[in-house]
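Example record

Each entry pairs one chain with its bound ligand, flavin-adenine dinucleotide.
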Amino acid sequence: MTQPAAHSPGAHPDSVEFLVIGAGPTGLGAAARLEQRGIDYLVVDSADRIGGAAAAHTDDRGFTWSVAGASGAQWHAIADRLVDVDRLRLGMRVAHVDLARRTAIFADGRAISYRFCVSSAPLPTALSWAGARDLGTGLRAHRVLAVGAGFRGRVPAGLASALDAEHAPWARLVDSSELAPAGHWSVLAELRFPGRDDIDTARAVSSVLGALEAYGAAPTPAVTTWTREFSPACPEPSDDRDELLRTIDARLTARGFFSRGLLGGWRPEASDLGGAYRQGGEAVEAAIAGTAEAAYWVGASQPETESAA
Ligand SMILES: Cc1cc2nc3c(=O)[nH]c(=O)nc-3n(C[C@H](O)[C@H](O)[C@H](O)COP(=O)(O)OP(=O)(O)OC[C@H]3O[C@@H](n4cnc5c(N)ncnc54)[C@H](O)[C@@H]3O)c2cc1C
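C-alpha cells for the complex follow.
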C-alpha cells in the first residue's frame, strides 16, 4: 500500500487524502487522529458550528437545553487542541458523493476528490450516494423529540418518581435544573416516535406537562417550554441489523467510504459521545492499516477487514 500523503496546508483543495463529513464527535475523532498522524484531511459540516447533535441552546428566559448530555464546549476544546482549524469548513453541505470516483460534490457545486472518506452523514443518505438505497430497507428507526420544560421555584419531591416512571410519554426524563436560572428548575424529556410519523409537537408538549403534573412533579405552571426534533430518524437495534450492516459496510469500505457514528453507523449502543469519537479515530486506522474497529463493532462479531485502498 502507498503511504498516505503528508499535510499540505493551503487554499481550498481539489483533493485530499481523507475527506471527513461531519464535525460532530465522529468527525472530530477522525480529524484528531489524522492530525496526530500528520495525514492530509479536510472536515466539512453543513452546520455553522461543530459538535453535531451534542449542542446546547439557551432560550430568552435563560434556561439552557442541553441534548446529548453535553454543552458542546468539550467539542470546541477538542477542536481547538487536536484539530487544525484551517482544515475545518463549516456551512458546507455534501450534496452527493460518487463513491466509485471517490469524489464529493458540495451544495455550491464545488467538488473534491479523496482517497478515503469518513462520513457521519445518515446511512440512508450514504446508501443513496452509493446507489444502494435498497440495502437499507431492512433498517428500522425512530424519531426523537426533545421537550424542555422550565418552572419557577425548587425542584419538587414528585420529580424523583417521574424520573423513574415506567408508564410515561417520555423514553427518558432528565433533571436539567443545574442549567436553569437561579430560583428555577427544569426537565428535559426525550420522546420517541415511529420513523415515518409526523410529530404533533404541541400535543407532545402537553403530554409531558400532563404527565409531570400527574406525578406531582409540576406544582406550578411551566414558565417556558422548548422543543427540538431530531431528524432524520435515530437507528434502533433489530434482529438482523448487524448482518445487514456487515453487508452494507463491506460494500462501502471497499470503495474507501467509512460510514460511522450514530446516524452513519446505525449501532447506537456503540455511538454515545465517547463511542462516536473513538469510531472516528478507528475508521482512520482501518482505512490506512486495515486495523479492526473495536468501537464500531462492539458487541457484534467483526467482519474480516480488507484493505480499502
Ligand atoms: C436526543 C438525543 C439524546 C442523546 N443523549 C446522549 C447522552 O445523554 N449521552 C451520550 O453520550 N450520547 C447521547 N446521544 C448520542 C450523541 O448525540 C451521539 O452519539 C453523537 O452526537 C454522535 O456523533 P456523530 O458525530 O456520529 O453524529 P452527529 O452528532 O449527528 O454529527 C454529524 C454531523 O454531520 C453533519 N452532516 C450530516 N450530513 C452532512 C452532509 N451531507 N454534509 C455535511 N455535513 C453533514 C451534521 O450537520 C452533524 O453536525 C443522544 C442523541 C440524541 C439524538
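The chain is about 25% helix and 25% strand.
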